[in-house]
Each structure stands twice: as structure tokens, then as C-alpha cells.
UniProtKB/TrEMBL annotation:
Stretches assigned to the Histidine kinase domain: 204-402
Entry's transmembrane regions: 12-33, 45-64, 71-104, 137-157
Keyword hit for Nucleotide-binding: yes
Protein name: histidine kinase
Length: 404
């Protein structure tokens, strides 16, 4: 049964054709019965004229949903023929109500208005053409109004169906648009999360591996002449590797659960207080760093603290990578009333021009680009470039209020 219903929904013309055939048969039978009984109907006319008129009106029923505007014009033409040739009315004239409803529901706007106007004029014209001889003037007027009501109701019903379909169409379009927007937002969120994880991995790996490489080179150099220094360098490599492993476990935990876990094997995110440990690690690896804090230290938003830590970490990593063997660095943290200022400078030979002229693209594409993205996420500003006297400078201002 459901298959039959679906088939009929996909082929509405077949349904209309069935009703057209049924209407044609009823019209022919009723006309024949009236003629045999000698009953008078509205209008006259022989079967040679009535049958074609009935056929055309049934055709209007059959094709009303395929070409509603054309069927409306055909119905109007048939009606004019009936008025002009005084053709008797039959059951097939019900097609006028059906086509009025159809064009009001699915046809063009001009066709809908035309159907309403013609429908309201049909009753007065029919009453003028075939007046009731036994009724007075008021009776004819009342009958005219009564005959016009079905046309008005058919048009109102069709127009309400059009409005409801348009409303449902808007709801479906809105739901589709919202679904696409949600998918786009989800893709953007996934891309942003991947970029954030990539920045975190870059900062963790680049810094800790560079420290381990420097310490390993130093240990190999003094292994025979100064075993104690080599042992100390190996211990630094071990502690640095453990720290990198802990941070990478935290990042993998974020990828698995989507949340930062501060218990178990995952460690908290770095903050401003851990910058001092980062400085000590750099000093141990052979990079002299001057570290000063100005203003009154106080708790900051976690996003600001992580951004500050990563900027200092990346800046010192770049100094170690590009500054040369005799480079030194200085780090300044300034607590303002409405934000945190950072200034990291070194006196080395400076970074390659592409690091800052082309937006910060280094070998992996996560150097200064990552810094700028981090600062942008907290609504801050970043300035990076060579110092006038040599070396490199990175300055950032991180506001306490997030950007809107």
C-alpha cells in the first residue's frame, strides 16, 4: 500500500487523469438522464456541442498540476464558449473550482489573481446569462452571491496552501543552511584545534630537542677531558626529554579526550611562573639569559599565561638556532594594569629574513606564525624583527580581556 501511495505521489497526473475520466463519465450520464427526463438545465445545446465542452473541462482536470496557467486560460475560454453559445451546464463545470484552487496553490501570481477575478465574475455573468425566471431581483442577487462563495473559498484554500508550503520551504531551507553552517563551524573548529596542537607540538619539540642536541654535543666534546661535565649534560638531556615526553602526553590526552586533564599521566599547561624554569634550562644548555620581571605579579587568564610562556620558549629556541654560538638573550616581563608585556631580545647574528618578512615561515611553518596566531587569539599584538644594533627582538602585549 505504501508503494502504491509513493507511486501516486510521484505521478500526480495519473491521479488527475483518473478523476478527469470519472468526471467525464458522470457528466455524460447526468446530461443524458436530464435530456431523457426532459428536465431543463441552465442553457441548451446539442450533444455535438456539450460533449467537446465536457472533454475540454475534463482535460483541465487532468493537466491542472502539470500546466496550471494554461489550463486556467483553457477553462476561461471554455466558459466564454458556454456563455456565447448558450451551452448547458454539467457536472464538468466543477473544473472551474478545481483550477481556481490549483493556480492559487501552485500557479504563478498573475494566474492566481486572474483566477480570483474571473471566479468572482463568473457567478454574475452566469446569472445575467441564465436568470432564474421564478425569482425576483433580490432572489437573483442572493443566488449570485451564493454562487460566488465557492470560487472565493476555493481561491482562499489554495492561497493558504501556497502560504503553508512556502513557510515549510523556508523552514527546510533554514534547517539546511543551519546544518551547513554547523558543518562549516565544525570543520573550522577541527582545523583550529589541529593548528593549536601543531603549534604546541612545534614549541615542545623544537625547544626541548634543541636543548638536548646542544647538551649532547657538549657531552661528546668533554666526555674524555671532563667526565663530570659530560655526566651533568647527560642528566640535563634526561630531564629535558622527560619534560618533553610529559608535555607530549598532555597533548595526546587532549587529542583523545578533547579536554585538559590535570591528573594521572597528563600535566597542566605551562604558565608564567614556569618561565623561570625555562630560563634556567636555557642557561644550563649554555645560553646566557638575563631575566627580569617588572610590576606586581598576579594570576592571569590561562590563555594569556600559556601564550606568554610559548612566546618566550619560541623566542629563546630561535636564539639558540639562529643567534650563533656566542649569542646571549634577555627576557622582560612587565605587568600592566590591563595586560602583560613581553620583550625578548638577543645579540646574535639574527634570524633569516623570511622568518619575519614572509609572515614567519620557518622550516615547518610554525615559528613566528605560531606566535602571531597565539597572540591574535588573546587579542594582543606582536612585533618581531631585527634590532638596530644586531640581533633580534620580539615584543608582545597581551591584554587581560579577550578579543571580541
Amino acid at each position: 500500500m505504501q508503494r502504491l501511495y509513493d507511486f501516486l505521489r510521484r505521478h500526480p497526473t495519473w491521479v488527475d487523469g483518473f478523476w478527469a475520466v470519472l468526471l467525464f463519465g458522470l457528466s455524460v450520464v447526468s446530461t443524458a438522464v436530464e435530456q431523457q427526463a426532459g428536465q431543463k438545465s441552465r442553457g441548451t445545446g446539442s450533444e455535438a456541442i456539450i460533449i467537446p465542452v465536457v472533454l475540454l473541462l475534463c482535460l483541465v482536470i487532468a493537466l491542472r498540476r502539470r500546466v496550471p496557467e494554461r489550463m486556467l486560460l483553457l477553462a476561461i475560454g471554455v466558459g466564454l464558449i458556454q456563455l456565447a453559445l448558450d451551452v448547458a451546464t454539467t457536472l464538468a463545470d466543477f473544473a472551474f473550482l478545481v483550477i481556481t484552487y490549483t493556480v492559487a496553490a501552485t500557479g504563478a501570481r498573475w494566474a492566481s489573481r486572474l483566477a480570483l477575478g474571473v471566479g468572482l465574475c463568473a457567478a454574475p455573468l452566469a446569472q445575467l446569462r441564465w436568470p432564474e425566471q421564478e425569482a425576483d431581483v433580490l432572489g437573483n442577487i442572493a443566488l449570485t452571491v451564493f454562487m460566488a462563495v465557492p470560487f472565493a473559498l476555493a481561491w482562499v484554500l489554495g492561497d493558504s496552501v501556497r502560504t503553508r508550503r512556502a513557510y515549510y520551504g523556508q523552514l527546510e531551507e533554514r534547517a539546511t543552511r543551519l546544518e551547513k553552517e554547523r558543518e562549516a563551524q565544525a570543520k573550522v573548529a577541527v582545523a583550529a584545534e589541529r593548528a593549536r596542537i601543531a603549534r604546541e607540538l612545534h614549541d615542545v619539540v623544537a625547544h626541548n630537542v634543541s636543548v638536548m642536541v646542544v647538551q649532547a654535543d657538549g657531552a661528546a666534546y668533554v666526555l674524555d677531558s671532563a667526565p663530570d661535565q659530560a655526566k651533568k649534560a647527560l642528566e640535563t638531556i634526561s630531564s629535558t626529554g622527560r619534560q618533553a615526553l610529559a608535555e607530549m602526553r598532555r597533548l595526546l590526552g587532549v587529542l583523545r579526550t578533547g579536554e585538559h586533564q590535570e591528573s594521572g599521566e597528563y600535566v597542566p599547561q605551562p604558565d608564567v611562573e614556569q618561565i623561570d624554569d625555562l630560563i634556567q634550562q636555557c642557561r644550563t644548555s649554555g645560553l646566557p639569559v638575563d631575566f627580569k620581571v617588572e610590576g606586581t605579579p598576579r594570576p592571569l587568564p590561562s590563555g594569556v599565561e600559556l601564550t606568554a610562556y610559548r612566546i618566550v620558549q619560541e623566542a629563546l629556541t630561535n636564539t639558540r638556532k639562529h643567534g650563533g654560538p656566542k649569542a646571549g638573550a634577555s627576557v622582560r616581563l612587565v605587568y600592566f594594569d590591563d595586560g602583560l608585556g613581553l620583550l625578548v631580545e638577543d645579540d646574535g647574528k639574527g634570524a633569516p629574513h623570511e622568518l619575519y618578512e614572509d609572515g614567519g615561515a620557518d622550516g615547518s611553518g610554525h615559528g613566528l606564525i605560531g606566535m602571531r596566531e597565539r597572540v591574535g587569539m588573546v587579542g594582543g599584538t606582536l612585533d618581531a624583527g631585527p634590532r638596530p644594533g644586531g640581533g633580534f627582538r620580539i615584543s608582545a602585549l597581551l591584554p587581560l580581556k579577550p578579543a571580541h
